[in-house]
Amino acid sequence: MRTQVGIVGAGPAGLMLSHLLHLQGIESVILESRSRDYVENRLRAGVLEHWVVDLLTQTGVGARMSREGLMHDGINISIEGRLHPINFKTLTGRGVMVYGQHEVVKDLIAKRLADGGRILFEAEALQVDDIAANPTIHFRKDGKTQVLACDFVGGCDGFHGICRTSIPDGVLTTFERTYPFGWLGILSASPPPSHELIYAYHQRGFALFSMRSPTVSRLYLQCDPDEDVATWPDGRVWEELHIRLGDDARTRLAEGQVLQKGITAMRSFVVEPMQHQRMFLTGDAAHIVPPTGAKGMNLAIADVLVLSRALTAFYRTGGSDLLEGYSHTCLQRIWKAQRFSWYMTSMLHRFPADTLFDQRRQRAELDYVTSSKAAATALAENYVGLPMD
Questions:
Q1: pLDDT class of 249 with cuts at 50, 70, 90
Q2: Which domains does the chain have, with CATH numbers?
Q3: What is the pLDDT of residues 222-231, one digit of tens each?
Q4: Beta-carbon contacts of residue 67 (< 8 Å; ≥ 6 apart)
């Protein structure tokens, strides 16, 4: 089997890369180890930056998002129970869209298949060879080992995938930070307590009140990273959510059936460079951000937009300048997103080792960002998405 671009992974990055390449007449094949049903129902966060909403719409995969997504003009920051709104639309003229990552994946899969795209589900990538000149991806499907030959490899297979580990030792430099807490998250069959997301700072720890739809809420609590989710029965979760939400919105927090519950570790991770010879890493294969800044999927889509432009230039003119500059271009945006995600995380969470000085400084930061137009504008322009060009 042969194609121009072999893509490993059918998450948002791999699917969007294939879609963008198709629009430019470039062939690709996606290898995905999981089933279509699994991929389409793998729940992840879903806050889309303004430019991502525009990109999905302009490239023909935004119709359902426009009907079902929830446009947000801002967020609320709750400080010890009192809400402080930050209006993105007033400050920047832009907003964000709440639309689950799995919904984006569904739309992209449907579009790729309708356009005749090749997605091989339950096709496990085993190894990548000869990335210097003639890349081949060995994969197993239906019990048989097969080979996909290609000109370039899109490593869109996440942190635990094979693409990054196929790059020889000594090529990549890793930058990493692990945070001393996690997020206990639930999906609840209940309306959200507010039309806008609420980021809550509380002496007992951070909480986030978000939504998936007008009838389904996504709610989070700061917890120890190694806690057993079994120690958090539903009653304890709801009690803590009510406490951390505070007086301004507590009466609007409706309790519903808990559809999903789990604990997510918090960390930052970047590798440099994000490419080696004819292998290009995207999304979680190259970088991870704590979810506080809502940047994960947006960064992945930014990566593949940059890569698709570089590949288009190569196939049209033979020029490789954009391909050679792929990593540098992406990393400028990634490190700004890492900074913003660290800023949101450090401003809103209680750190176990913090001194009284640290706590007072943190409160001063919260007071400043909720009272200064300049500080709120800086937060807003990062949250809605920095310009791509």
A1: confident
A2: 5-46+100-172+273-343 (3.50.50.60), 179-266+351-384 (3.30.9.10)
A3: 999 999 999 9
A4: none
